[in-house]
Amino acid sequence: MERRDFIQNALIGIAGTVTATAVGRHALASVPEPIFQPNAGTAPPWRGPETTGDNARYRPVVTLNGWTLPYRMNEGVKEFHLVAEPVVREMSPGFKVNMWGYNGQSPGPTIEVVEGDRVRIFVTNRLPEKTTIHWHGQRLPNGMDGVSGLNQTPIPTGKTFVYDFVAKRPGTFMYHPHADEMTQMAMGMMGFWVTHPKSKHPNISEVDRDYCILLNAFDVEPGSKTPKVNTMLDFNIWSFNSRVYPGLSPLVAKLGDRVRIRIGNLTMTNHPFHVHGIEFEVTGTDGGPVPASARWPEVTADIAVGQMRQIEFVADEPGDWAVHCHKSHHTMGAMGHDVPTMIGLNHLGLVREIQKIVPDYMVMGERGMYDMKEMEMELPPNTIPMMTGTGPYGPIGMGGMFTTLKVREDQKPDDYSDPGWYKQPAGTQAYEYKGKLPAVNRNGADQPGSGQTGSLPAPSVDVGNAQVRKPSQSTSGSHKH
Ligand SMILES: [Cu+2]
């Protein structure tokens, strides 16, 4: 072929391409460009056009270690584009897990709209199997409810389906597949949905901070990277928004802020969600806002499987307060099962001998499991220690479903950055008692009415001669001194 012909053909080719592209672009113009999130950080609140100025319709939420999906307005319809796809989620620094999610992360982006909005969601399936999305809790036409086989045919790999409905009622919602849901949810497919009220609502407060947390769980064998999908109850990674402490951002508030936390549970067990330092009220459930007359104070709200709860409080106590699931094994990292209790056994020396035969052998805490944090443990690669996170006073001893509520006098409105560790004012922190301890005489102490305990000598304080027992000394037989 002569060079001139080649160029001629190439030009025809280009012309042909241009035509095809023009058609393609026209068709594509009806689908919003998908937006992807490259990292697991906490994105600042998404300041859409309805969140600023005098006519602002709502104060945007903040999804802990997540983000809000921007929309496109198309003739009065808010259009979103979700892409279901395999993702790699960094659950905690250095601990990466192969998951399935949406738009680059698990959970997927939060969808945030206003009551009465017409919403159109394009869902593109880039998974190796069929999927759907169910809009958990929403009022919508039956054909939009997303149960495969019941309401629609599932979305085949490579295809895009459209969900189109009006966000009828304000509240906290979730989305997740209703197609091979055990696999797809075990792999991390889920997301949050918030519908703000269109006008002042008698049972919905305006708040200064509005957080979203999805409770989720995975079963990742220590040293592996992909969750097991046949696990029914024995999950070993308990997470907020597919992150575990210390990979979770703090919930920050300015002193006096009214704070809302929206919590959804897409694990297979209940989670008593516990906040230190304040009392809260449950102001909303799956079914909508709770009337003020029906609320009561709590410091723990149990969130059952498939439920959503909104809790609210005034952050009027400065400090770093723990926020965690109260099931203690849910604030721990990857554990093997069938672990014997080793409290009271001295393993030193023995461990090294056993490890010659069983290289993975680990000591499960001869003084309780707190040891685990202080010990330099050899762990399989890509495994989080069982309990992680270090505070200003040493290991926190909790991971998993744990983070902090950081209340500060000088936190700026709309500032969600970590203010660092709280410095307790002098005289307001637990301190070591350095006086003498009373002798304990247990003989007769168990006899009712013996009065033995009351007759023990009062402790004599002698700060100058502090007696600090070394941990290696026996903790039994305290009657000897
Ligand atoms: Cu829990």
TrEMBL record:
Provide the primary localization: periplasm
Q: Give the superkingdom in one word.
A: Bacteria
A single Gene Ontology CC term: periplasmic space
* CDD domains found in the cross-reference section: CuRO_1_2dMco_1, CuRO_D2_2dMcoN_like
Keyword terms of this UniProt record: Copper, Metal-binding, Oxidoreductase
Q: Where is this region: Disordered?
A: 35-54, 433-481
| Listed Polar residues bias regions | 470-481
Q: Does the keyword DNA-binding apply?
A: no
**Location within or outside the cell:** Periplasm
**Which GO-annotated molecular functions does the record name?**
copper ion binding; oxidoreductase activity
Mind telling me which Pfam families this protein's record contains?
Cu-oxidase_2, Cu-oxidase_3
Domain named Plastocyanin-like is located at: 95-199, 224-339
Any idea what this protein is called? Copper oxidase
